[in-house]
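Progress note, sequence design subtask.
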């Protein structure tokens, strides 16, 4: 039993040693654009991106009225376009992510409120 626990501990330590110092909601090994490199290279941006990914996951699973689902995806595409316009600017990306995360939080609260009222 002790050897098995040591093996599990060693495997976890090796996995932790090979994991990236910080991760984003996308694979940083596949980063291709200036904004993606900036996010992968900055722990604060990576954290904001990870938060946005979790919020989007929740928001995208809330049933929407007809037409709202398309608008939700259009907003996501616009965010990615705006993110691309920021390039490597940490200040621009930080502001954009904070606004996007706040918008997603509000969208979740509003959508859940509508579901409970129906």
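Output:
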């Amino acid at each position: 039993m002790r050897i098995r626990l040591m093996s599990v501990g060693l495997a976890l330590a090796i996995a932790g040693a090979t994991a990236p110092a910080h991760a984003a909601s996308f694979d940083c090994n596949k980063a291709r654009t200036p904004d993606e490199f900036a996010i992968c290279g900055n722990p604060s941006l990576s954290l904001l991106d990870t938060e946005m990914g979790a919020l989007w996951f929740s928001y995208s699973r809330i049933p929407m009225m007809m037409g709202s689902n398309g608008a939700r995806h259009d907003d996501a595409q616009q965010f990615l376009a705006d993110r691309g316009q920021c390039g490597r600017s940490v200040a621009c990306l930080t502001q954009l992510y904070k606004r996007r995360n706040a918008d997603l939080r509000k969208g979740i609260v509003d959508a859940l409120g509508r579901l409970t009222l129906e």
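Confidence is low (pLDDT under 50) at residues 1-21. Work on this subtask will continue into the next period as scheduled.
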